[in-house]
């Protein structure tokens, strides 16, 4: 096993030589920065190398790590193995407590098992992870001379995770030029610190020239490390909940199918476009509130979008309420955000496991 391979000049050549020289052995090379691996693994490893991306912990993995799945989650039955489970909470208030813990420190395995890190995430997560990538890896890889400029931009993005932004607004709030911001966004996404999500219009058409977009932290725990932990009444809970739900998709190969919709009179948080047809298959409106369950005016945007795009059923997340309703001929499934995050991550992980079993059987 080789660790921190990005700091070994020509590592890919040496590894290729080892693989060719010892064909019965398996070699594992790890690195802390995805950007480094992308930039420096230019040597062709066809037939030799397999890349594995290790995203942050999902909410399902977090609950499994702390041993609370059985006492917090009620699994629903399904008829076939390939069908998705619809999972809900035995006690939504307890599940919400763990969801908030997940937002604050649960994206990193070491933090889950370490009380010192839990209680001082700003020291450990910020210094050991964020600062390492921002202040060391990216500047050394891309020749960034103004490290504080990059750090200021990332801090602005982290504070506004889940919100729609533009190059103009980023430039004004961070004091960084738009051309430099474009490059920095590419670097930050390559380093797997952020995920950029593009917009579609009311008819689900993409924009040839995107002037606005959403930027999500790949791990919501990074915001808590920078600005302090949140509780269930914190003003950032809505944006962090949306960030956490997007984070679950980092384990899926279809994450690039995700968009958000916005038009003059409304917005929908998550829209999934079919790769081939570019038509929306489903959409989700993310809320950390129970108010939409009793005030249909708050559903106007997602209902009008669904009707305009032929979507018969949509999901709206809540804080504590689970129920199903029909509004203007559109069926709406209300599910608590924490339960939806668990459902989403558990189904993605199950799908991955099934794909591996099928691939293994096809080889045998």
Description:
- With 364 residues, the protein is an alpha/beta fold.
- The protein folds into 2 domains: 1-52, no CATH class; 59-363, no CATH class.
- The protein is 45% helix and 16% strand.
- The chain has helices spanning 11-21, 34-40, 59-65, 69-72, 92-105, 109-113, 115-119, 121-142, 147-159, 167-174, 178-190, 221-227, 237-248, 300-308, 337-363, and strands spanning 73-74, 88-89, 164-166, 194-200, 212-217, 258-263, 266-273, 280-285, 313-318, 323-327, 330-336.
- The strands form 2 sheets. It has a 9-stranded mixed sheet with strand order 3-5-4-6-7-8-9-11-10, with helices on both faces.
- Helix 13 (237-248) packs parallel to helix 15 (337-363).
- It is globular and about 65 Å long.
- Mean pLDDT is 85; it is low at 1-8 and 79-83.
């Amino acid at each position: 096993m080789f660790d921190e391979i990005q700091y070994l000049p020509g590592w890919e050549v040496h590894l290729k030589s080892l693989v060719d020289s010892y064909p019965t052995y398996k070699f594992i090379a790890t690195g802390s920065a995805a950007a480094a691996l992308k930039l420096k693994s230019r040597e062709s490893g066809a037939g030799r190398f397999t890349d594995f991306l290790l995203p942050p912990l999902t909410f399902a993995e977090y609950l499994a790590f702390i041993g609370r799945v059985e006492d917090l989650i009620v699994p629903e039955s399904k008829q076939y193995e390939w069908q998705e489970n619809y999972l809900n909470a035995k006690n939504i208030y307890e599940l919400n407590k763990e969801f908030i813990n997940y937002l604050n420190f649960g994206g990193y395995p070491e933090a889950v098992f370490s009380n010192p890190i839990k209680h001082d995430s700003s020291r450990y997560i910020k210094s050991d992870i964020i600062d390492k990538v921002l202040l060391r890896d990216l500047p050394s890889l891309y020749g960034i001379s103004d490290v504080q400029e990059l750090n200021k931009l990332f801090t602005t993005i982290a504070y506004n995770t889940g919100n729609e932004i533009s190059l103009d607004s980023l430039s004004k709030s961070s004091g960084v030029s738009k051309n430099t911001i474009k490059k920095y966004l590419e670097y930050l996404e390559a380093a797997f610190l952020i995920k950029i999500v593009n917009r579609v219009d009311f008819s689900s058409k993409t924009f040839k020239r995107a002037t606005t977009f959403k930027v999500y932290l790949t791990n919501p725990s990074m915001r808590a490390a920078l600005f302090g932990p949140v509780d269930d009444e914190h003003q950032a809970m809505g944006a962090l909940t949306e960030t956490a739900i997007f984070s679950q998709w980092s384990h899926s190969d279809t994450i690039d199918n995700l968009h958000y919709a916005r038009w003059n009179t409304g917005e929908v948080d998550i829209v999934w476009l079919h790769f081939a047809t570019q038509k929306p298959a489903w959409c989700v409106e993310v809320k950390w509130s129970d108010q939409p369950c009793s005030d249909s005016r708050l559903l106007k945007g997602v209902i009008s979008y669904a009707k305009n795009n032929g979507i018969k059923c949509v999901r709206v997340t809540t804080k504590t309420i689970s129920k199903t309703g029909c509004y203007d001929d559109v069926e709406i499934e209300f599910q608590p955000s924490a339960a939806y995050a668990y459902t989403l991550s558990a189904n993605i992980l199950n799908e991955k496991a099934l794909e591996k079993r099928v691939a293994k059987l096809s080889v045998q």
